[in-house]
Design goal:
This protein has about 400 residues and is of the alpha/beta class. The protein folds into 3 domains: about 120 residues, Rossmann fold; about 140 residues, NAD(P)-binding Rossmann-like Domain (Rossmann fold, 3-Layer(aba) Sandwich); about 90 residues, no CATH class. The strands form 2 sheets. A 6-stranded mixed β-sheet has the order 7-6-5-8-9-10. A 4-stranded parallel β-sheet has the order 2-1-3-4, sandwiched between helices. Strand 8, helix 11 and strand 9 form a beta-alpha-beta unit. The longest helix has 24 residues. The termini are far apart.
Length: about 400
């Protein structure tokens, strides 16, 4: 390691160790400094909200923190770029997620790292603790188990369940792509889109793009193009198989308008960019090293628009733009789930915000003289104070509309 890398490593370790270990603490939201206050905080006063909640469970949202409390839950099987490090080693990441929830959307979080002997045992654990929470954020769970886990929890619980690695990523990619295509003079409904990587994020993004109007999407994995003639294909991906003669990435990317990489470092050869359509969009999102570096891509195509997952390049696709605000809107609406319509609303809100004039506070936070909608700014910055207003409200309104429609249908 270089001296700079060693210094950063030590700073990161010190950040987590001092002045006290970890990144979270629990603070009382009510005073408890007198005997009278103690009698209200605990026995006998606490009996009154207990009775009210027993009488009507909805009162939990009035008398407890349930309505502003999210569980960030993992089994530690797919932690960042570190892989299966196990539940305990994943705890710093889950605490970090909690910090972002609190800082950006004022949502309280308990991080929960589950050491379960099986996928079904993990699901039962989450179901059993769910009454405590207003929402469940699943995090860093490996595919294909993550699909089954989310599906079962959504079926069994009546609070929002959201796998951020799938859907948070999808929302931000879709938001950025809407703006990228606009700048490049293209339409989502007509764009030829190629994914490299068909894991949780790739599949979720492809499905969300289809729901938003995309009609030409091809997924490519290590084995090649996922087409309808593939043998022994996972049932999780069958709805995304296409009827095509393309078999390799080189085949698929020819004349493509969009490349979305959610795969691995250096997985996109620069020469393939030459075969893409005029004014292509390239999202190279592998972290920490993208499928192709912007400098390499720009050397081949000066007409492309590019995004990565890194903060040191323009157009960072960052989940922090989505999950705090999506949950804020969902909790405020008491949404029974995070629906596809709510995700689409979040994507459109993010896209719209990037088109608005950028406030001085954002420029100051990023030490910039100016920033405006264009090739180097298609997605809002994470420290934009308007994200909560734009995204949370869009999600809130989408959920209320769905709940009103459901009430109309059921007559209750």
């Amino acid at each position: 390691m270089t001296d700079e890398q060693l210094s950063y490593k030590q700073r990161a370790l010190d950040y987590h160790a001092y002045p006290k270990p970890g990144k979270l603490s629990v603070e009382s939201s009510k005073p408890c400094a007198t005997g009278a206050e103690l009698s209200l905080a605990y026995t006998p006063g606490v009996a009154e909200p207990v009775r009210e909640i027993h009488r009507d469970p909805e009162n939990a949202y009035r008398y407890t923190n349930k309505g502003n409390l999210v569980a960030v839950i993992t089994d530690g099987t797919a932690v960042l770029g570190l892989g299966n490090v196990g539940p305990l080693a994943s705890k710093p990441v889950m605490e970090g997620k909690a910090v972002l929830f609190k800082h950006f959307a004022d949502i309280d979080v308990f991080d929960i790292e589950v050491d379960a002997p099986s996928v079904d045992a993990f699901i039962e654990t989450v179901v059993n603790i769910a009454p405590t929470f207003g929402g469940i954020n699943l995090e860093d769970i490996a595919a294909p188990h993550c699909f089954y886990i989310e599906r079962e929890l959504r079926r069994r619980l009546s609070i929002p369940v959201f796998h951020d690695d799938q859907h948070g990523t999808a929302v931000v990619i879709c938001a950025g792509l809407l703006n990228a295509l606009e700048i490049q003079g293209k339409q989502l409904s007509l764009a030829k889109i190629v994914f490299l990587g068909a894991g949780a994020a790739g599949m979720a993004t492809a499905r969300l793009l289809k729901a938003m109007g995309a009609t030409d999407i091809t997924l490519v994995n290590k084995s090649g193009v996922l087409h309808k003639g593939c043998a022994d294909i996972s049932p999780e991906v069958k709805d995304l198989l296409v009827d095509t003669d393309s078999r390799t990435l080189a085949d698929a990317i020819h004349d493509a308008d969009v490349f979305i990489g959610v795969s691995a470092a250096n997985a996109l050869p620069a020469e393939l960019l030459k075969t893409m359509a005029p004014r292509p969009v390239v999202f190279a999102l592998a972290n920490p090293d993208p499928e192709i570096l912007p400098s390499q891509a720009m050397a081949v195509r000066d007409d492309l628009l590019m995004a990565t997952g890194r903060s040191d390049f323009p157009n960072q696709v960052n989940n922090a733009l989505c999950f705090p605000y999506l949950f804020r809107g969902a909790l405020d609406a008491k949404a029974p789930q995070v629906s596809q319509n709510m995700q689409i609303a979040a994507a459109h809100a993010l896209a719209q915000l990037a088109r608005e004039p950028v406030p001085e506070s954002v420029l100051k936070a990023y030490e910039l003289d100016g920033l405006q909608f264009g090739k180097d700014y298609i997605i809002p910055k994470p420290f934009d104070p308007r994200l909560k207003e734009f995204v949370s409200d869009a999600v809130y309104q989408a959920s209320l509309a769905e709940q009103a429609e459901m009430t109309k249908k059921t007559g209750s």
